[in-house]
Amino acid sequence: MDTSYPATVSDFYLDKYEITVGRFRQFVKAGMGTQADPPAAGAGDHPLIAGTGWNSTWNSSLAATAAALTTAIECSSYQTWTDTPGNSENRPETCMSWFEAFAFCAWDGGRLPTEAEWNYAAAGGSEQRVYPWSTPPVSTTINFTIASYECMGDGVAGCSSADFSLVGTKPAGIGRWGQSDLAGNVFEWTLDWHSDTYPMPCKDSAQLAPGPGRACRGGHFNNQPYALQTNFRYYNPPADHIDYMGARCARSVGTSGRAGTGGVVGAGGSFGAGGVLGTGGATATGGTTVTGSTTGTGNAAITLTPMTLDFGGVVVNSASVTKTFTVTNSGANATGALEVVKADSTPSVGSGSQFSYTTTCSAGLAPGTTCTVGVTFAPLQKGAAMATITVRTVDRTVSSQAGTLLGIGV
Question: What is the dotted CATH code of the domain comprising 1-290?
Fold first, then answer.
C-alpha cells in the first residue's frame, strides 16, 4: 500500500453478490433503466457526498425502450444475458453501461460504491490484502478454485460465457466481510471518474470531476492475476457496453434493498451485529490503494512516476506513442541490480503485448537517483489494451508496485 493516500469511509453496506442476470431481468421487466422510465433526479445518491445522485441530463445515455436495452446488453458472444430465463440467471450480468448500473442500483434501493468504499471492502480495510481472500494479507496465493480469470471460470481452457462463474460458487475467494467474487468474473463499476491521483483529503469522498472514464475495479474473467489484485485500477467510457463489465450495489446505513433481491451483507468493520462495513469514521490507512510505489526491504524504496501511462487512441499498424516512467530510489540505502518485469493482459479485444519497453534501469540506484523505463504502444488491432510494468531488484527484495499501461487501438 501507499500510505500517502489514507482514506476514511463511514459505515456502509456492500452487496454480497454482483448484480446477476436474474436480478437485472426483474429490472428490465419493470421497464426501468430506459429513457421512458429513468431514475428520478437525485436518485442513487451517496448521502454524504453532494451532487452524486442521478442527473437528468444522463437520461439520453439510456436506451430508448426495454427492447433497445436488451439489444444493448447482447454485446458479444460472451454476454450472459439471455432473452428467456436459462442457466445463467445466477451469473453476473455483463455488458452493462455505467448508466445502467447506476440506474439498477438506484431502483434496487442502493447506489454505486465509491472507489474508496470498493477498495476498502476488497483490501480488507487496514489489512490491505493483496487479493480479497489473502490470509495473511501479504499472501499472493491465487488459483482457479478461488476466482474466475484467464478464461478458466468453468475449468475448461478457452473463453466462453460459462467462464463467468455463478455468483458465490467460489467460497475460497470470499473477502474479509463476506463478499463473493470481488476479484475476477467481471470488472465492477464504481461511482468515481478515474484520475491518476485520489481526492485528498479523502473522507467520504469521490472523484466527481470528469476524467477519461468511470473507474472500475476487480479484474475480469479473462485477466491475468495481477489485474485481480486489490490495488489494480482501470476505467472505461461510461456509455460503453463491454462484455467484461458488471457491478454490485452499495447501501448506506439506514437503507434497505428491494424485497427479494437478497445479497446484502454485513460487509464491515464489525461483521455480525448490524453487518456494517466501516469503522465509525476511523481512518483506514490506504483505504484506497495507489498503483504506485512500495517500500521494500533493506531501507531502499523504488517509486514509479507517474502511476499510469495512458496512451489514448493510436492508429492500428501505422502509428506508435512512447511515454516514460521515472524510477526513483527514495530510500536511504542503495538498491542492488534492477530488472523490469512487464505483465501483459489478454482482454477480449486488444492485447497487452502491443506494449514494448526500453530501460536505463539495470545497475543499482543510489539513494535519491533515478533511471527511466520508456514504453511504446504500437497497436496491432483495434480495441483496449492494458499491461503493467514493475521494477524490482534482481534478488526481488525491493519492488515497486505495478505501473499501469493503458491504450486503445483505433
Answer: 3.90.1580.10
The CATH fold assigned to 294-409 is Immunoglobulin-like (2.60.40)
Q: Cα dist. 119→51, 127, 409 in Å?
A: 21, 11, 29
Domain boundaries, the chain: 1-290, 294-409
- In whole angstroms, give the CA distance from residue 251 to residue 55: 19
Cβ–Cβ < 8 Å for 257, 251: yes
What is the distance between the alpha carbons of residues 157 and 151, in angstroms, rounded to a whole number? Answer: 7
State the Cα–Cα distance between residues 337 and 392, nearest whole angstrom. 8
pTM metric for this prediction: 0.68
- 293 pLDDT above the threshold of 70: no
pLDDT for 401 equals: 65
Rg (CA), the chain: 21
Q: Is the per-residue pLDDT at 165 higher than 90?
A: yes
DSSP-assigned states of every residue in 22-85: HHHHHHHHTT-SBTTBPPPTTTT--TTSTT-S--GGGGGGSBSSHHHHHHHT--STT----SS-
List b or e across 292-319, with b for residues whose CB sees 16 or more CB atoms inside 10 angstroms: bbbbbebebbbbbebbbbbbeebebeee
Which three-class secondary structure state does DSSP give residue 262? coil
Nearest to 359, CA basis, from 382, 392, 330: 392
Average pLDDT over residues 126-155: 94
- Model confidence at 257, in pLDDT bands (50, 70, 90)? low
Query: Do 1-290 and 294-409 have matching folds?
Result: no
